[in-house]
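Quick one: structure for this chain?
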Amino acid sequence: MISTDRLDSAFLALADPTRRAILTRLAKGEATVMELAKPFAMSQPAISQHLKVLEDAGLVAQRTEGTRRPRRLATAGIDAMDRWLEMLRTALERNYDRLDHVLADMESAPRKKGGKR
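Got it. Here's what it folds into:
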């Protein structure tokens, strides 16, 4: 079962375009706060606040490498979102399959006089 709190945090974190841009950058590989701050017109503390939201949502993880603290995408948070979206996709496909069957039955039903079925 997917944690509702975790999903809420993850989708709330993704509502911000700066956080989505940070995730897009991290999809290319690990980066430090300084590296992540470069393309944005905001301070490193502001980027750190965005990273904190992403880390709390389970979308970003940090590791220690001497004095560096590179961030990377976190598999668990992204996998949880993916599983939830897949559940919706599967339900939608089932609904379309049922609709296809109903339409096929209507097409194959004999027509009554006057064009009515």
